[in-house]
Amino acid sequence: MFSFSTTVFAMGGFGEGGGGFASFVPLILIFVIFWFLVIRPQQKKAKAHRQLVSELKKGDEVLTDGGIFGTIQKVADDMVTLEIAPKVPIRIARSRIAEVMNPGKSSRSKK
Fold it and tell me: What is the pLDDT along the chain (111 residues), one digit of tens a residue?
């Protein structure tokens, strides 16, 4: 009844003036917006966390991503020993440190 070419032409498949590049402009625009709103801020946050973890030292009061506060007693390559209460040490991965509360100052050493 209808041939394929007349159906496609009626749907706008052939004879479209803009063609190739014009159809990709919205996709490119979406990717650029996604880059600036999602990917770039995440990369900056990850870079800041890597720097924070690399600068850990003994005596820093830290908060882990699990919500545990403690004072760093020992720093190894990939592990950190925290004192979470007097004479209660725990070992955690360096990457699990979320925040340094006050660098280089221990509240227990002030007593």
Answer: 556 555 555 555 555 555 678 888 889 999 999 999 999 999 999 999 999 999 999 999 999 999 999 999 999 989 999 999 999 999 999 999 999 997 656 554 444
Q: How would you write the chain as a 3-class SS string?
A: CCCHHHHHHHHCCCCCCCHHHHHHHHHHHHHHHHHHHHHHHHHHHHHHHHHHHHCCCCCCEEEECCCCEEEEEEECCCEEEEEEECCEEEEEEHHHEEEEEECCCCCHHHC
Expressed as residue numbers, the domain containing 99 is: 55-105
CATH number of the structural domain spanning residue 82: 2.30.30
Tell whether 69 is covered by a domain: yes
Cα–Cα distance between 38 and 70 in angstroms, integer?
Answer: 32
Cβ atoms of 15 and 9 within 8 Å: the answer is: yes
Nearest to 98 by CA among 54, 68, 55, 65: 65
